[in-house]
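Order emerges. One example.
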Amino acid sequence: MAPESAQSLKNRPVRMVFTTRAGGASASPYDSFNLAEHVGDDPEHVRANRARLAHALGIAPDRFVWMEQLHTNTVTVVDGPQPGPVQATDALVTTTHGLALCVLVADCTPVLLFDIEAGVIGAAHAGRIGARNAIVPATVRAMVDQGARPEAIQVLLGPAAAGESYEVPRQMAEDVEKHLPGSLTRTRKGTCGIDVRAGLVRQLMEMGVTHIDADPRDTVTDEDFFSYRREGTTGRQAAVIWLTGKQEHKQQ
């Protein structure tokens, strides 16, 4: 994890972070900055890693909102700290300052969205199934319900499995393409593949969301990241987004 300096972030109304697998307490095969509780890692190590994340970002641990993430197309609007992971949801939306929305991934695409003018942010877990079943459009609609405008929403797609690494059976690739046009591709081996980020860009643009950036890093080939497709049993990195401002609760 390499967050920007406090000075460079001082006046930004929205902040975003993508973690890597380095700098944590977890042992192999979760080495070392695993942030997921559900993958078999030592719970004490996960708690230590989450505390380290909170300290690095200057946000109290109870201000982080995590999700159960079941590859649904369910979006949950939150307005304060939660007692545990938000159940059976794959996207979060809030207008509450200082509330850090978190997405855990190890090849799926983390999608961070914000409308600065409206003061609305969102975070979505867009794996193959969730992207196919329109989790990102559902997130945009939930943000609009909170006052955002599609033309004002900005999006950052995080590190994820690239199309050239994401080999799937042809029938599966064609099914995803039917629901997520633009995702069908060929892998570096010349076989059928899925480029989730490419499909999401097209999907967002069709909704009138055009301010889109994508981190091109491939989690399957880049060993700075956890990758389920590469390793099977492994940890999870996180994407985090939060609104700054006078309501932000920082650690003392």
